[in-house]
Amino acid sequence: MTAETRQFSTEINKLLHLMIHSLYSSKEIFLRELISNSADAFDRARILAMSNPGLFTDNAEQKIFVDVDKKARTITVRDNGIGMTHEEVIANLGTIAKSGTEEFFKKLSDEQAKDANLIGQFGVGFYSVFMVADKVIVFTRHAEAKPEAGVRWESNGQGEYTIEAAARKTLGTEVILHLKKDADEFLEDYRLRGIIKQYSDHITVPIFMQKIEFDEKGQDKKSDKIDWEQVNKATALWTLPKSKIKDEEYKELYKNISHDFSDPILWSHNKVEGKLEYTSLLYIPSTAPFDLWQQTSKHRGLKLYVKRVFILDDAEQFLPTYLRFVKGVVDCNDLPLNVSREILQHNPTVDKIRAALTKRILNMLEEVVKTDADKYAKIWAEFGKVLKEGLAEDFANKDQIAKLMRFASTHTDNEKQDVSLSDYVSRMKLDQDVIYCVTADTFLAAKNSPHLEVFRQKGIEVLLFSDRIDEWVLMHLTEFEGKKLQSITKGDLDLSKFESPETKEAREKKKEDFDNLLKQVTNVLGEKVKEVRLTYRLTTSPACIVADSNDVNMNMQRILKSLGQAMPESKPIFELNPEHGLVKRLNAETDDARFAEWTQILFDQSVLAEGGQLEDPATFVKHLNALLFDLSKN
User: Fold this and answer.
1) Are 274 and 283 in contact (CB under 8 A)?
2) Structural class in CATH, domain 500-547+569-633
3) pLDDT tens for residues 493-502?
4) Whole-model pTM above 0.70?
5) CATH 3.40.50.720 corresponds to the domain 405-487
6) CB contact at 8 A, 422 and 406
7) 3-state secondary structure at position 187
8) pLDDT band at 407 (very low <50, low <70, confident <90, very high)
9) What residues form DSSP beta bridges with 302?
10) How many CB atoms lie within 10 A of CB 148?
11) Is there a contact between 140 and 174 (Cβ–Cβ < 8 Å)?
12) Residue 49 near residue 56 (C-beta atoms within 8 A)
């Protein structure tokens, strides 16, 4: 066969140009693609050998060689895999997005297909070589072809290629890259070894490079003898049975992929077979990463491998945002090797794996809750605030996430968040059907909130919410195990079921004594309040403010304001404690000016108790000083 020049179609020319200049962000990816193609050739050879056992008798040892010639400015990648025929070279190298693997796979019988799960689909990967090479030559010979039926293919990636017969004694494929002038970095031995270690360390076929020895001056020792040494480990830790992997090996891999010096606190290794085939190795760090709360952080997600070939360093598509602290590896057999981040975002296979991995992590956390409470307490201390985001983000798993939640509580009165919703429910009073909680911007503000007074008096436990995210927790977690969650700073508080009939009757009679007071206070405060009413949620404080059941409370208003969000119009409800001495004295006050001053002081105090800011603090201080002076005279 004489040399034949063929033209790429106009469509393929455009796609080739786009691929070379836009598809990959890093030029070093070319070596990954070539090695992946070689690994694929061995997978196809293995399946072909099933029907022709003697075909590879003289070529049983599978190897990939990567050789550099600095003088000739070439990189050669050579394998002894299945090779290609003349027709396959035209089909596979002359057409974009076609590597031959898919067509080969279709020819397999159903029985053979069961053993072909490692075969990949390489798509346009081969053409990444033109990012670094201005000429590429391919020598190949199919395993079933005679030596004289070898093929030579050559192209500069500019729209055409030549193909001709070329006798070849050995089967397999050899790709020779003539590097561009700006690709000198890839002539360095250490650079190629680093690329192989990063992207192809876990290819199961051994990859060899020339062994280089240095003299005392750090110069290469010249030798006529070529010694080859294996560069990759040729094994993926996550593909091994768990029984053969030591804890120290798991920890070492974690440090390698996460760049964390500390050991992980927890990990899960799992292999899934069936409609989806993938292996996952998931780690939970012992400490939160420094960029956990940086929205622009790029160091999130799992390392993605396809058939043990490294694809993406931070594939965030496999985990929801609230699990962004999880590190690890996912190795999938159901994705093409030329997958990109854009493809991952709209891939149903990824969605299924994401759902499964999310469930696995939540189950892993549930299990450690049961088996090692102290370990889970450490996990919660580091990542609890992030996990709370899941209540808003992950509706499908909301119930399971709710069981993992931990909060501070009046049961312990310490800042440590160690009370679960299940713990709270188990301690609820007889006939109590509501989980009570109070929100504030700090733990101390929550712990000392005047709203807690009646609950402490009656021995009713209240959860103390002081993380900023807790306001959103209340919005999305409205009930737990049939018990409604209620903020004690919103709406009218009904604790009548915990009171005697006599107490209820006495309070009803007392209301009449304060009707005029409520009207006067309403007139003084005017547009500042939505309503003025009596309350029995207080025992030692004279007054407080609450939000209406459908309004935004003061803590949420502050959060929205700090985020630059538009503030919904919301006025507080002012509640007075009729049992308090100051309120009784206010009710008896006949001087209108003094009544107005005292009213304003009580209102401002209530705003401060909720962590709010006064519009006119100087006037508040002036009125308070006047009141103190007046009281001192009496």
Assistant:
1) no
2) mainly alpha
3) 777 777 777 7
4) yes
5) no
6) no
7) helix
8) very high
9) 315
10) 11
11) yes
12) yes
Q: Tell me, rounded to whole angstroms, the distance of Cα 59 from its chain centroid.
A: 45
Q: Return d(Cα 480, Cα 330) in angstroms, integer.
A: 33
**Range scoring the smallest mean pLDDT among 105-114, 198-207, 432-441, 524-533:** 105-114
Looking at the chain, the domain(s) classified CATH 1.20.120.790 span: 500-547+569-633
Q: If you compute the radius of gyration of the chain from its CA atoms, what whole number of angstroms results?
A: 36
From the list 287, 337, 323, the residue with the least C-alpha distance to 128 is 337
Cβ–Cβ under 8 Å, residues 325 and 288: yes
Lowest mean pLDDT among 127-131, 343-347, 398-402, 586-590: 343-347
Q: Which amino acid is at 260?
A: D
The pLDDT of residue 108: 44
Q: Are strands 463-465 and 327-332 parallel, antiparallel or unpaired?
A: unpaired
Least confident window among 353-357, 384-388, 442-446: 442-446
Pairwise CA distance, residues 591 & 576, whole Å = 19
Tokens describing residue 603: 């209102």
Tell me which DSSP letter residue 54 carries. T
Q: Is residue 99 over pLDDT 50?
A: no
Region of 611 (left: φ > 0; alpha: ψ -120 to 50; beta: rest) is left
Q: For the beta carbon of residue 607, count every other beta carbon within 10 angstroms.
A: 19
Look up tokens 């002359």; give the residue.
94
Q: What's at 3, amino acid-wise?
A: A
Query: Hunting for tokens 């800042």 — which residue is that?
Result: 415
pLDDT digits (tens, 9 = 90+) for 614-629: 888 888 888 788 777 7
Which single residue is written with the structure tokens 């909720």?
610
Distance (Å, whole) CA 283 – CA 325: 9
pLDDT at residue 242 in the model:
92
- Nearest residue to 385 (alpha-carbon basis) of 283, 468, 320, 445: 468
How far apart, in whole angstroms, are the C-alpha atoms of residue 44 and residue 171? 13
- For the chain, how long is the longest CA-to-CA vector? 119
Query: Domain 4-214 maps to which CATH number in 3.40.50.720, 3.90.226.10, 3.30.565.10, 3.30.450.20?
Result: 3.30.565.10
Question: pLDDT tens-digit profile of 535-546?
Answer: 888 889 999 988
C-alpha–C-alpha distance, residues 469 and 475, integer Å: 10
- Chain region(s) in the chain for CATH 3.30.230.80: 241-376
CA 22 to chain CA mean position, Å: 27
List b or e across 465-492, with b for residues whose CB sees 16 or more CB atoms inside 10 angstroms: bbbbbbbbbbebbeebeeeebbbbbbbe
DSSP 333-365: SSS-TT--HHHHHT-HHHHHHHHHHHHHHHHHH
Q: How far apart are CA 64 and CA 58, in angstroms?
A: 16
Nearest by Cα to 471 from 561, 382, 589: 561
| Confidence band, pLDDT 50/70/90 cuts, at residue 114 | very low
* pLDDT value of position 122: 33
Q: Give the strands of the sheet with 479-480, arranged side by side.
A: 408-409, 463-465, 434-439, 483-487, 479-480
Strands 151-155 and 133-141, by their bridges, are antiparallel
The separation between the first and the last C-alpha atoms of the chain, rounded to the nearest angstrom, is 119
